[in-house]
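re: ur question from yesterday

yeah so i grabbed the chain u mentioned. its 124 aa long if i counted rite. heres the sequnce exactly as i have it in my notes:
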Amino acid sequence: MKSFFVGLLLTSAAVLMLAADNPSFSGKWKVHTSVAGNESDSDCTFTQKDNDVTGSCTSDNGTVKTVGKIDGSKINWSYDSDYNGTALTVKFSGALDSTMTKMSGSVNVEPFGVDGDFTATQTK
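ran it thru and got these structure tokens back, copy pasting raw so excuse formatting
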């Protein structure tokens, strides 16, 4: 019986270690973006399944659907939108900090070739 509990304890410890190595990006995030001198804030909700990320972001300009990937603490996501009738894709590339509740990185807007940066905080 004692060996059963030791085995259970070791298995539980292994599962917790794996969970720590695979952080979850799922949840609500407040995202602040600065691109070419334009500041904006969005409320985003992301759902992570394995390394795939889907969700939506809402700002003063409406709501957009997002798709992306996570690899360890590195995260990439994008969404399609338009600016004065011109289709564009906004691409985010960043990293989660050690607390897994904050992230920062770069933003690229295609086809305009405009770059900027973003910060985000998880709001749960």
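noticed a couple things. The CA atoms of residues 77 and 88 lie 14 Å apart. also The chain has one domain: 24-122.
anyway ttyl
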